[in-house]
Amino acid sequence: MAEIYIGLMSGTSAxxxxxxxxxxxxxxxxxxGCRNFEIPKDLKEDIIQCSQSEKVEKEFIDALNFRMADVxxxxxxxxxxxxxxxxxxxxxxxxHGQTIKHEPRSExxxxxxxxxxxxxSDDLDLRTVGNYRHDDIDAGGEGAPLTPIFHEKVFGKDKNxxxxxxxxxxxxxxxLDFPKIIGFDSGPGNCLMDCWSRVHDxxxxxxxxxxxSSGTVNLSLLETMMGDEYFLRDYPKSTGPDYFNHxxxxxxxxxxxxxxxxxxxxxxxxQVTILSLIESINILQLSNENIYLCGGGVHNEFLCNQLKxxxxxxxxxxxxxxxxPDYVEAICFGWLAKQRIENKKFNLSEITxxxxxxxxxxxxxxxx
Length: 368
What we know:
Blueprint: E1 4-10, E2 16-23, E3 30-38, H1 41-52, H2 58-82, E4 90-103, E5 110-114, H3 117-124, E6 128-130, H4 134-138, H5 148-155, E7 162-167, E8 170-177, E9 180-188, H6 191-199, H7 210-213, H8 219-226, H9 229-232, H10 246-254, H11 262-283, E10 290-294, H12 301-310, E11 314-317, H13 328-341, E12 346-347, E13 357-358, E14 362-364
């Protein structure tokens, strides 16, 4: 008998919601279907504003929390309708939520994802797992990335050394280097390029990297940006668009004596994403291994081509390993929901730096 779970993921770039329906009745993860849903324009704009502002009013956060939950609920209803799945057959929802703030190294460490899991549970009358990062942060960890344990589960069966790289708003890397599994955020993925594109009315993102390809990397700016403390820090480490944002770009530009063409800035931002990733690959001594990409960055053709040119590694996508690169994270959080409901704990000391085994996610039961 099928055990159906729905995984929901909205990445740090806040471009859309990925939704995956899974049958987890056996050890094999059976993907019943995946869909992508747009986040309404006004909500997207408020999310971006909120994530890049230093201070945000609690009332604004609370309103965003409920608005995002509504969109997530609609996404679940839509995929169930499209796949003709009876809602009563669903065992649980795994919703990562939309990250607004991620400050695991502040005096009072915290992380904030919107998309109220209790509201999702109440509206759908389904058990929902959310707030995946909180217990890890409480145990002294970074709270992210959490996907490496899933990467080991689905991509590590052959025990061959490899890296899984998710290029979303932020880039994170998983080194499957058996018996050790290491994972961390290498730095920005698309978030800086998306931001610069919006500021210059190119669009919400640089389609296929065409704008970046029209510019020239400014070596002085690149050197300044790559001197950022985050890139020099040892792992475990994680970051978000509340750090790598428009203010970060402006701060780096202000340190230069000459003005730079916007397209040259874009080309340089793309190079920051590539260089920070390649440096991480080299630190993990995976430069001669296969690197499998997933996330929205796989659609940036210029980025992927430059990565292939500049890296010694063999660059592929997770499609070569049997999973659509657009939906790896949504599938992950559906799978993690089942693990949490079954009260399984994980040791993430090599990934997030947390102490001991922790639960990933908190369970929200319908309050009706």
